[in-house]
Specification:
The structure holds two protein chains of two kinds. By secondary structure, chain A is mainly beta. Chain A has no helices and eleven strands. Chain B is mainly β.
Chain lengths: ~130, ~110
């Protein structure tokens, strides 16, 4: 059974960089059929897609966050990571990592999210 | 950005009721729409993908329909476990977006 687990600091200071890691177990992150993504949810609010990465390192980012986001993959550790720079209180949220099957059109893009981590709350505060 | 608008925002219903939630996209997304169920303190769970395909393991009382800009999620006979918040998500255009959610409450 595939499992995803987020880890990282629960508190980040304003203007600093938020860093989270998602460890995948029960399956290989190197599989050619899947994207690995990050989604966040501010307390009491809705879901926001942050971005997704293919095992090869190809990435897609939410245009509204693109200037501050980096997603990377470490296939040797079966992990992928999120870095969000210059954080403010508006970045306080539960951050989820998730898997999506690839969707093949003229290019290969992520599909819907079928496996999710439990989520980790990151608070931005001094 | 593609805007996804769900209605209603809150829905009160009873066990056994048939309920329908609507999701409208600001432009056509073909059938590239998913529905999720989220319970408090838990991650979302994929119910429906490609507008009408039931995810493995999801009860058959859940169904989805629609294409283009208008989509619906129907629960044919509400069970106690179904009271939760439901989200739609478009995955046609990068910059994937979710609806604001529909909270399904017990009447």
């Amino acid at each position: 059974q595939l499992q995803l687990q987020e880890s990282g600091p629960g508190l980040v200071k304003p203007s600093e960089t938020l860093s989270l890691t998602c460890t995948v177990s029960g399956g290989s992150i190197s599989s050619s059929s899947y994207y690995w993504g990050w989604i966040r949810q501010p307390p009491g609010k809705g879901l926001e897609w942050i971005g997704s990465i293919y095992y090869s390192g190809s990435t897609y980012y939410n245009p509204s966050l693109k200037s501050r986001v980096t997603i990377s993959v470490d296939t040797s550790k079966n992990q992928f990571s999120l870095k969000l720079s210059s954080v403010t209180a508006a970045d306080t949220a539960v951050y989820y990592c998730a898997r999506s099957e690839e969707r093949i059109t003229m290019i290969v893009v992520p599909g819907p999210f079928d496996y999710w981590g439990q989520g980790t709350l990151v608070t931005v505060s001094s | 950005d593609i805007q996804m608008t769900q209605s209603p925002s809150t829905l009160s219903a009873s066990v056994g009721d048939r309920v329908t939630i609507t999701c409208r996209a600001s432009q056509s997304i073909s059938s590239w729409l998913a529905w999720y169920q989220q319970k408090p303190g838990k991650a979302p769970k994929l119910l429906i993908y490609k507008a009408s395909s039931l995810e493995s393991g999801v009860p058959s009382r859940f169904s989805g329909s629609g294409s283009g800009t208008e989509f619906t999620l129907t629960i044919s006979s509400l069970q106690p476990d179904d009271f939760a918040t439901y989200y739609c998500q478009q995955y046609n255009f990068i910059g994937y977006t979710f609806g604001q959610g529909t909270k399904l409450e017990i009447k």
